[in-house]
Specification:
alpha/beta; Rossmann fold; three-stranded antiparallel sheet; 8 helices; 11 strands; 32% helix; elongated
Length: 283
């Protein structure tokens, strides 16, 4: 079995929690992030006594250093399992499974829990997994996704699944090919607040770039089952590329309006590319 990839992520906002981890927390405690000083009588912890600050204080008093804790959080997956996510060879869902396995491994390394909800035309309760800290969590979720069967997708299923995550903090990875009308997506993103949403746009190379040779081609809709034949020619290739460029610009604008940057997953999952994308977004 290939080595599981690992990538690095951080919550851009402070998160609540009591379990020690790697993200900036809200609670005061024994962390490394210095906040300020308090009187020893207000916070009786002689281990944090700051002699230099105490001598310089006016009026003189014993002062202790106050720091914020770093805490663990729950990372949640919101995954599209509709039939279009099976397109390609080995397929978009295989790339998603590689990402999910890497997420499980990366989260376990920093003490975070991982949970999942999934959708096609509706929320899929059999794929609903609460946040859990376990070494094999990524492998479990990846296997569930690869074995699942989906039908038609759409914003209704996404909205139903997102409702289960409403009001939760942390990070939500929204994974889909977004091959459905986007009119209702802004309302779903608002529903997911206050979590930080990371959109993963999953496209197969075969749907990004049209075939190079002219000739008769047949396309089958993965969700409706309908087929259509057409003659592939240079003008049609140009329309193909233009349509893809418009959809990408539409997604960039829609997510950008809420300060989000989508990560385009085309082909095999690249953990280093995702790490760079997440770090650039928080720079």
């Amino acid at each position: 079995m290939a080595t599981v990839q690992e990538f690095h992520y951080r919550s851009p906002a402070r998160v609540g929690g009591q379990r020690t981890g790697s993200h900036a927390g809200m609670a005061l405690g024994h962390g490394l992030e210095f906040v300020g000083h308090q009187s020893l009588f207000a916070r009786p912890d002689a281990r944090r006594l700051d002699l230099r600050a105490s001598v310089a204080s006016v009026p003189p008093q014993w002062l202790v250093r106050v720091q914020r804790e770093r805490v663990a959080m729950t990372v949640r997956l919101l995954v599209d399992v509709s039939a279009s996510m099976r397109f390609g060879s080995p397929g978009k869902m295989q790339a998603v499974a590689e990402f999910v396995e890497a997420l499980g491994h990366s989260a376990f390394r920093v003490g975070d829990a991982v949970g999942m909800v999934a959708f096609d035309r509706r929320e899929r309760p059999e794929l609903r997994i609460p946040g859990w800290r376990h070494r094999g969590m990524g492998e479990l979720l990846a296997t569930m996704l690869l074995q699942s069967q989906g039908g038609a997708g759409g914003i209704e299923g996404l909205r139903e699944a997102a409702t289960l995550l409403a009001g939760r903090s942390g990070i939500v990875f929204l994974v889909s090919d977004f091959h459905w009308p986007l009119a209702g997506l802004p309302a779903v993103l608002d529903l997911l607040a206050p979590a930080h949403v990371v959109p993963l746009v999953v496209w197969d190379p075969a749907e990004v770039e049209p075939p190079a040779r002219d000739g008769l081609a047949m396309l089958a809709d993965a969700e409706s089952g309908s087929t259509r034949s057409f003659w592939l020619r240079p003008a049609l290739r140009a329309r193909w590329r233009d349509a893809l460029a418009r959809r990408r610009a539409e997604l960039d604008a829609l997510f950008g309006a809420r300060g989000l940057r989508p990560f385009y997953l085309q082909g095999a999952f690249d953990a280093q590319a995702l790490s760079s994308h997440l770090l650039e977004g928080q720079a």
